[in-house]
């Protein structure tokens, strides 16, 4: 059985490789997963499965987006669910599911108040800001030209509420013309026309006063609320939201609590509600992107040496019978010289026919995940030491100078630095730096052996669509080297040169290409409610207006 399982796992692994080469990542993921289950202890199968999961999940997300654009909601939801099942860490799949489930099934209703322990019941009993609750919600029609107090009293009777006036308020005659208007809208019209403002004292009683800065400061309702941030990952996130709230809501008091990722605010109920809406709009999880970087390096080296090299040297040596080390000749020796007294040394001849063809292909595929605006760095390789030294001269404490040798380490391999900026439409702007260093031998400097470091790097800022591939940069080197070694003249005659010389020809080709492709893991979570404008009243005071759903306007939910 173990042998069969091993053979089955190998076959499945090969099927996965074949499917991956066809970019059928779903089939490749299934094959790798089955191979991993057959041999759970095989790291090669497990690594292949973990590597292909994000790609297979991304493939289903792409299909889901296409189906969603074509209006096929059920099919799109199935693709997003499949993507989440393959890779649960893929936030884009969860976002796609959430966006479609709201269209298929209504959102579940949340309970009004969670159960609290007995010791917190007193805190739970603290009163919320007073809200006006009229007896009748029927639209009001009113056409009058009277004193403002009389008009306020007429509206209050129609809605079944009580109205009180500030003793310092001096009313004036105004004219109103209202038809089928809600109570709060009618009160707003009368307040604007008469230069007054009102605030609820109880659920069925309002208090009216002149609309001045002093009166608003004295009478306007105040409340306190703690607003929590769900996605603050650093101090700047909290500070940015605090700055936005201070600039928009100039009259509120707020304080940030970094340890709790919370903001304590005091202001009017409308100001607190607007602050809550602003935090909901701004406190979003940072989008994330996965970057596939492919480094392809192709080296070709072809060397050809061919020809015959005849002897290039000839030397003669004189032999004498004299024992003198200087080998001088006497007249008697000179008279008796013959061929036996000379020896000739002829250089070697060489015939060479050699062809060397080397083809090397190297591909590296690092993958890096980063959040929006955050720099991410990945290093793959090793660190090698480099000797450094300092010279110290003679001093009172040290009679003789000395050299202090130290070592520092440098990174060798692939170093990738990336800072992504993810846009609302799904495009990704990348500031990328990819650097490849290698150890290309050693050199001796002043008796110290130091490594020779080869380096190729590229640094760019580009904007890409999700899944779009782009070549960051490339490096191409060509070397064409020809050499001749042989007999002068004869070695240069066409057709005969190979008989009297060795012709060498070397061709080198080196090419390095950086390919980059982004995949959104988590997009920007912005819904239509985050994009709609909100009526905030006048520049003197924040006054929010509730929009009730009607048959003709259902795009905006009540605040």
Automatic annotation (TrEMBL):
Gene Ontology CC terms: type II protein secretion system complex
SMART domains, alphabetized: TPR (SM00028)
Ranges where the record places region Disordered: 1-20
Signal peptide residue numbers: none
PROSITE patterns named in the record: TPR
The TPR repeat ranges on this chain: 9-42
Keyword Iron: no
BP term (GO), one: protein secretion
Keywords, comma-separated and alphabetical: TPR repeat
Keyword match Transferase: no
Record-annotated Type II/III secretion system secretin-like domain positions: 356-522
Pfam families xrefs: Secretin (PF00263)
Entry superkingdom: Bacteria
Compositional bias segments (type: Polar residues): 1-18
Protein family (similarity comment): Belongs to the bacterial secretin family.
Name under which the protein is recorded: Type II and III secretion system protein
Species whose genome carries this gene: Occallatibacter riparius
